[in-house]
Amino acid sequence: MRTDKPIYLTIREKIEDQIINNQLKEGEQAPSTNQLVNFYKINHATVSKGVNQLVDEGILYKKRGIGMFVAEGAREKLIQARKESFIEDYVVMLVEEADKLGFEEDDIINFIKQVKGRDRS
Q1: Which of 19, 53, 78, 99 is deepest in the core (most CB within 10 A)?
Q2: CB-based contacts of 79: which residues, under 8 Å, 6+ apart?
Q3: Which ranges in the chain belong to alpha helices (H)?
C-alpha cells in the first residue's frame, strides 16, 4: 500500500468510501482492527488510529466484546464533510485561478460540461 498520506488515513478513507458507497450500511458491523491488520499487514496501532478517529467522530461505534458498527447518520455525515472538503480543496482554487486567467463564470461551467462529456473509459 503506497501513498503519500499516512497509512492510518488511507485505512480511514477506505472505510469511509465503503460507507459512502453503501458497501457498509448503517447498523452493519465494520471490519475489526484485527481483520484490517491481517489484510493490510500493518501495525495494530496504525489501524487503531484511523478507526478511532471514525469512532470519535460518531461514524463508527463500538459494542464491547462484539466489534464496531456503522453509526446511524454516518453516510450523510461523511457525504456532507466530503462536500465541504471538495469545495475548499478544489472549487476555491479553481475559482481563484479562473479569476487570475480572466475566465468568466460561463467559461468555467462550459469547461466542466466539456470534461463531464468526455468518454472516460
Answers
A1: 19
A2: 20
A3: 7-20, 33-40, 44-56, 74-86, 92-101, 105-117
Residue bearing cell 459512502? 20
Q: What is the DSSP letter of 32?
A: P
- Encode pLDDT of 18-75 as tens digits: 999 999 999 999 998 999 999 889 999 999 999 999 999 999 999 998 999 999 999 9
What is d(CA 102, CA 116) in angstroms, rounded to the nearest whole number?
22
For residues 8 and 67, give the distance between their C-alpha atoms in angstroms, rounded to a whole number. 19
- Which 8-state DSSP code applies to residue 90? I
CA 72, 76, 80, 83 dihedral sign is: positive
Set of cell numbers at residue 29: 458491523
Which helix (H) or strand (E) covers residue 61, if one does? strand 60-63
